[in-house]
Amino acid sequence: MTTERDTWLDPLRGGERGPDAKGMFIWVLLTAGPVWDIAHGRSHPLWLAWPAAAAAAGLYLLTTHYAFADRRRALPSLGLLAAVVLTAATGFGDNWLYLVIMLATATGIAVRGRILPLLLFAECAAALLLAVRGGAGLTDAAPLVWGTFTAGLIPAMIVALWAAIDELKATREELARTAVTEERLRFSRDLHDLLGHTLSVMVVKAEAVRRLTRVDAEAAGTQAADIERIGRQALAEVRAAVTGYRGRGLAAELDAARTVLADAGIGAVVRTCPVRAAPEIDALLGWAVREGVTNVVRHSGAAACDITLREIDPVEGDGRLLLEIRDDGPARGKAPGHGNGLTGLRERVRAVGGSLEIATPTDGGFLLGVSVPYAKAVLYDKEEQA
């Protein structure tokens, strides 16, 4: 499942791309050895040598192409490549032995499963026999055998690794879709629980208002006032529920920020004061931490980041909370405050009567400041009554 660390570090992982056929085509240059022998008159008859070299190059390119496009079609061409390479290396010797390394590379790309080690060992044994048959000693043949083995093993490991990564990505996307579906169902259930009974009561009282309007205006007014009170209460409950879906709260986001900054190699210093903010303010501050730290990770190039939360303008009842996120990175090329994330954050801050500051201090770096109202007395009274 997608973890919080994955969510934060996704911007750092752009541009991932696995191996493809084009990246493996370069090893067709190993046919330069046979071509060298042919050009210098060391491979006869020429009418057979030239077609053998061309066939080896063509079959290697074809096998590599099919290995990434349709692997089932790669196996027949790999068999033909093996037949051409081993026959030509046996008949001509010398630099034709380099084709065995090319064959091992194609094998590592095209073959999967338990049969791959067996094929690689067989090709290593064939390389050893061909080298000894050509007059080389075991010491001289060792580099050829080792080159054959690694030429097949390394591409196989790379392809297998990227196949596993693709499977993990597909699993992660499927889990994410499942999580979204479950969250939608939970959201629907919660809204039904919140509004089902409340709306039913409001309908009943509205019917009472309609009946009493001509009979008892005072009683009708009382019922209308009840409708207003119930509607306001329902609106507050819905806002609180939606706030829970939009953010996880300040404490959780600060913990996530410490983790992601450490993973990005950025030193983090977090200073907070003890506060008990209302749920919507707590969620908003958490959102600000997420947006600010995301910008630090993605754009700042900073080595350190300071996150500070303190109370300003304290009075007996209400006050304000100031959240500041500052980094020591170089000056940004883009004008501050124009990103979609910061624009959305600015709108949310204004909706609660707060203010947002984006600045580039004279001593360098970048500063994001969020100031929001802090209704201490009201919050504490509600908690004591509960």
Strand and helix order = HHHHHHHHHHEHEEHEEH
Poorly predicted regions: 1-15, 377-386
What structural category do the secondary elements indicate?
alpha+beta
- Gross geometry: elongated
Spatial sequence of strands, sheet with the most strands: 1-2-3-5-4
Distance between the termini: 37 Å
Main β sheet profile: 5 strands, mixed
Number of strands: 5
Percentage of residues assigned to helices: 55-70%
Number of helices: 13
3D architecture notes:
- This protein has 386 residues and is α+β, with helices and mostly antiparallel strands.
- The chain contains 13 helices and 5 strands.
- Helix 7 (115-133) packs antiparallel against helix 8 (138-212) and helix 8 (138-212) runs antiparallel to helix 9.
- It is elongated and about 115 Å long.
- It starts with a helix and ends with a helix.
- 27% of the residues are buried.
